[in-house]
Specification:
Helix content is 33%, strand content 31%. With 169 residues, it is α/β, with parallel strands linked by helices. The chain has a six-stranded mixed sheet with strand order 1-2-3-6-10-9, with helices on one face. Strands 5-4-7-8 form a four-stranded mixed sheet, with no helix packed on it. β4 and β5 form a beta hairpin. The N and C termini lie far apart (71 Å).
Length: 169
């Protein structure tokens, strides 16, 4: 009886993990779809490259200018930026590298002369963000701020950002 219970427990655990992975993929596709919809509503003929298995999610080309976009799903926790590729979810207490946002590292390490701007698109909204400017001082990161050569936006402001790009054409 104990062995059968263990088998059922393992099967249930595996099923939960598979369901969680499927839901995560569906949500990722939905975020990408909504972002692409906003882009297509803003421009007549944008050139869009989807970054499958790349550090970025989208490369948007408008008038031969490339914008590299990373869609970062965020929770209700604060984000603290300690250096260019160390972003940490923070919910009080001490900062811990265990809460590091790992999928931002390769994006922040992107360096190229090919693009005009890197954009981190916080989805669905920008939480409270701070960044260290030295060992003892922090500043608040606002929407549209540039941090380590990367524009910080929340999804609700993305349309306004695209309008600014369109106005500069």
């Amino acid at each position: 009886m104990g062995v059968e219970l263990l088998k059922y427990g393992i099967i249930i655990f595996i099923v939960i993990i598979v369901i969680w992975l499927i839901i995560e993929q569906v949500l990722k596709k939905e975020r990408l779809k909504q972002t692409l919809t906003v882009i297509k509503e803003s421009f007549d003929n944008p050139i869009i490259e989807i970054g499958k298995k790349k550090p970025y999610d989208i490369i948007l080309t408008v008038n031969d200018k490339k914008y590299v976009i990373k869609i970062l799903p965020v929770s209700n926790k604060q984000i603290v930026i300690t250096n260019h590729n160390t972003w940490i979810y923070y919910d009080g207490g001490r900062l811990s590298l265990e809460n590091r946002i790992k999928n931002i590292i390769s994006f922040m390490d992107l360096t190229s002369e090919d693009y005009v701007e890197k954009v981190v698109l916080l989805y669905p909204r920008k939480p409270h963000m701070q960044r260290y400017i030295n060992e003892n001082e922090m500043v608040i990161v606002n929407n549209f701020d540039v941090v380590y050569k990367t524009r910080i936006l929340d999804f609700r402001s993305f349309g306004a950002y695209l309008s600014d790009i369109k106005d500069k054409q």
